[in-house]
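Hi there,

I know you've been waiting on this one. I reran it after we fixed the sequence typo, so this is the corrected version. Both the input and the resulting structure follow.
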Amino acid sequence: MVHTDGLINMTFSDYLSGKLNHDYTYLANLFSEIQGTTIEQFIISHKIERIKELIIYDELNITEIAWKMNYKSVAHLSNQFKKVTGLSPSHFKQLKDKRRSPIEDIG
């Protein structure tokens, strides 16, 4: 669900329960016991990594990325991104842009 386009009218918990044919509470407890993190934190981490990729690809603006990643708002995406990375999406993009050298400058 992290790599799908557009809105999905289903929660991760419903999706996992349906796909794995088990109660979400059971799955969440099992996952936490084995992985040492919650399913929610695991999914958030993967979403943030996907958002970083989308920012680096520079094909979508932050509003489009928020929609693509199923966030209710840009503010929600930005807050979650900053909580995980310590940077706002725009600051992350600025850092990425500063590190990139034009091809003609390489050599």
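Quick highlight: DSSP finds six helices and no strands in the chain.

Best,
R. S.
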